[in-house]
From TrEMBL:
<keyword id="KW-1133">Transmembrane helix</keyword>
<keyword id="KW-0472">Membrane</keyword>
<keyword id="KW-1003">Cell membrane</keyword>
<dbReference type="InterPro" id="IPR001123">
    <property type="entry name" value="LeuE-type"/>
</dbReference>
<dbReference type="GO" id="GO:0005886">
    <property type="term" value="C:plasma membrane"/>
</dbReference>
<keyword id="KW-0812">Transmembrane</keyword>
<protein>
    <submittedName>
        <fullName>Lysine transporter LysE</fullName>
    </submittedName>
</protein>
<feature type="transmembrane region" description="Helical">
    <location>
        <begin position="71"/>
        <end position="92"/>
    </location>
</feature>
<feature type="transmembrane region" description="Helical">
    <location>
        <begin position="6"/>
        <end position="29"/>
    </location>
</feature>
<dbReference type="Pfam" id="PF01810">
    <property type="entry name" value="LysE"/>
</dbReference>
<feature type="transmembrane region" description="Helical">
    <location>
        <begin position="41"/>
        <end position="65"/>
    </location>
</feature>
<dbReference type="GO" id="GO:0015171">
    <property type="term" value="F:amino acid transmembrane transporter activity"/>
</dbReference>
């Protein structure tokens, strides 16, 4: 396998993984709808940084330790489950709080306050944490990435390049989602729609957390 064929083959696999509905897509969409374009891109960048870390770790064999050590895997799995549940419960609590807001109150007031509190760094950190605290990302890269490293190629450099290909595809996909969301911003700015998005995303996050805690595949 040549380097060019490895990159092309991995791009196909990573591209299919990128567009599959999942936690990353839910987080970016929620950020785009409730926090705006800049915060959504910050969240996406955090996720992509996490992917790069996992790719390089898999290339040098660090994630082999995660695969081999059940204790380490379980510790990371539980930490990830708690983190996802914490994010999801926070969104659900915010939804309930907004529903209790007096009907005469400005529905954009709560969203504006949240956007003001949510800094670019916090959005980036949320995306990064979600990516790094999911042990299944490490297992995926450990299982897939070595198959696309040609014989004789430097593992660390090749792993970084392959992860960068995945990141590039993710950036294109997330950009399409974010800009597409902005086109419907007037409708999505409604208080009822924002609450529905928070409720759905929060439920998804809690569901992912429970699934991860139970060790379901």
């Amino acid at each position: 396998m040549t380097i060019s064929s490895a990159l092309l083959s991995f791009a196909v696999v990573a591209g299919m993984l990128t567009i599959m509905p999942g936690l990353d897509t839910a987080l970016v969409l929620r950020s785009a709808i409730t926090l705006g374009r800049r915060r959504a891109f910050a969240t996406a960048l955090g996720i992509l940084c996490g992917v790069l870390v996992w790719g390089m770790a898999a290339a040098v064999g660090a994630s082999a330790v995660l695969t081999a050590s059940r204790l380490l895997y379980d510790a990371l799995r539980v930490a990830g489950a708690v983190y996802l549940a914490w994010l999801g419960i926070g969104m659900l609590r915010r939804t309930l709080k907004e529903r209790r807001r007096p009907a005469s109150a400005d529905p954009a007031e709560g969203a504006g306050a949240e956007a003001a509190e949510e800094t670019w760094v916090r959005s980036w950190a949320r995306g990064l944490g979600t990516s790094l605290l999911n042990p299944k990302n490490g297992v995926f890269y450990m299982a897939m990435l070595p198959q696309f490293i040609p014989s004789g190629a430097p593992h660390l450099l090749m792993g970084a390049v392959l992860a960068a290909v995945h990141d590039l595809e993710g950036l294109v996909w997330f950009s399409a989602l974010i800009f597409g969301t902005q086109l419907a911003r007037r409708w999505l700015d409604r208080g009822s729609v924002r609450r529905a998005i928070d409720a759905i995303t929060g439920t998804v996050l809690v569901g992912f957390g429970i699934k991860l805690a139970l060790g379901d595949s």
